[in-house]
Amino acid sequence: MLLDPPTVVSQNEITLSVREIEPLLQAPPMNVPPWPGATITLKDGRTMYIREATLEEAPAMMGYMKRVMEQDHDFYDVVGARVHAEIAGWYRKRLKDPYTLLGLIDGEWVGFANGRLMNEDINISLHTMALARGGRIGAIMYYVKTYYAFEILGSKEFWATYESYNGWHRWGLGMAQPSYPWPEYQHELGGARVYYVTKKYWDAVVKDYVRQMVGTDLVFDVPVEIVKANEQLKIPQDVTV
Question: Does 150 reside within a domain?
């Protein structure tokens, strides 16, 4: 839009450096405690290590999500596209206070969970995925994400929504999550309903429910050899969602 200035000006053109613009486009980060890393034993006896993803791993993860977009069942075309955008937003610093957690077995990527902080009180759940069959990996990654929100970040509420029937059945219905009135409250994933868990509800009910689903608990005293075995991310050969 062009308008004539209402007074005489000494400079008709002003040049801006993109370094001056970037602070207006990039949200100032909060002081977010990192996920400390943990292991959990799957039902088949294998050990899954859950750690934060690194920015250097983002391009490879986005490449995998492009393949997920091609799946024409259970809304994975939508999920793959959205997760790709979320990883890209984190990579390009266009997502406010995100966290990206990976489930790894000997370096192979088998689980994914991400979200972001709206503020100090509200934690926005974005997506949770199992990239390998069996082991209840999806349940574990959802547990990890909610545990991180309430036990480490100190969030007061955890907001989620669901694209698939399986996700809604397992977590929305299974955890008896209440929802805020719609459309007054809308989740940022397409304006869907906001299902939520409070810290009080987490302590009273949800924590034990997810532990029952998982069948074991997180171990934060991680051996050095486990950390080393999962330093290099291995992208799965096949898409098995």
Answer: yes
